[in-house]
Amino acid sequence: MEENRNTLSNSTESLIRFLWLKRKPIVIVTFTATVIASVVAFLLTPLYLSTAIVFPAATSSVSFSEQRNAKAAAMDFGEEEQAEQLVQILQSSRIRDKVIHEFELFKHYRIDINSSNKYFKINEAYNNHISFNRTRFGSIRIDVLDENPAMAAKIANKIVDLIDTVKNEMIAERTLPAFKVNQRKLNQMKKDRDAILKKLDSLADLGVIALDVRSNLFQAYVDSKNPKDREELKRKIDINMKYGAMYDGLEYMRNEKIVKIEDFNVSYEQAESDANTKFNHKFVVERAVEADKKDQPKRLVIILVAALASFIVAIFSLLLWEKYKELRNV
């Protein structure tokens, strides 16, 4: 144990003696790196941070079902699943392309539109300046960095507004075709019903009557004493005997169509609501404001890290050089 302590003490003394002997190159390297880092840090463009915070909504539709809890449709905040979906939408090209176009980010980020890899450059610049992250409270934080604090706030707030626009566009891509299918089906059902009603009217014009009153014709014929009335009743009885079954079948089909149309109206109204209503899909907790203090770069941190890194690199480089000389002289 005592031997180990003596060895450690000798090693420490040797290191301190080495550092003292090599103090000049170490100081020169560290000082030079610090000066260079200071110049670079002060040449970096300052960036200002604007932040907006939103919560996803729990649902994005209005239900016509009697079993639906209406409170959940309008008041509940979304949970983890809705938050993940919202982050995916925010990171999508739908929002990115709209932001790039509206704020002319090719020009703002000084990217040559004639460059062969301009889309790679604009996407890289976009991702370096704009980010979306979930917070531990389940909300979504939208951070925008820009050299212009007003521009940063405008971009962040525009992204907040685009959430509803883009999600409604995505919903419409699915709900509009479904609504058109429902609309065609409802129109066809009404057309079939009207065709049945037209046939019933034609039979009624001939004198065909409903089954529940048809039996009264026979009793009226028996009770009638007037030959002319009996002849008229006989004609009506013959017509009802001939077309009565058809009339009864059409009446049954009419009633079935009416019931089906009434039942289908719920599905149709739901499809119409989903296709035509523009929903609000988020709760805005905080809109972005112009920053009055830069967020990046952290100049002091850059200088300190550069100084420390150059100090360590200088020591290791000198140690390796001394070791190399020892090995070469062996």
Q: How would you sum up this structure in a few lines?
A:
The protein is an alpha+beta fold and 330 residues long. The protein contains eleven helices and four strands.
What would your notes on this structure say?
With 330 residues, the protein is an alpha+beta fold. Among the domains are: 1-44 and 297-330, no CATH class; 175-276. 71% of the residues lie in helices and 8% in strands. It has 11 helices and 4 strands. It has helices at residues 2-21, 23-43, 70-74, 80-90, 93-102, 105-108, 118-129, 149-206, 211-223, 227-276, 299-329; strands at residues 48-56, 130-134, 140-146, 282-286. A 4-stranded antiparallel beta sheet has the order 2-3-1-4. A hairpin with a 5-residue loop joins β2 (130-134) and β3. The longest helix has 58 residues, at 149-206. The radius of gyration is 42 Å and the shape is rod-shaped.
Poorly predicted tracts of residues: 67-72
Order of strands across the widest beta sheet?
A: 2-3-1-4
Strand content: 5-15%
Quaternary: single chain
Task: Average the pLDDT over all residues and give the rounded result.
Answer: 81
| SS class | alpha+beta
Number of strands: 4
Shape: rod-shaped
Largest sheet descriptor: 4 strands, antiparallel
Supply the number of helical segments: 11
Order of helices and strands: HHEHHHHHEEHHHEH
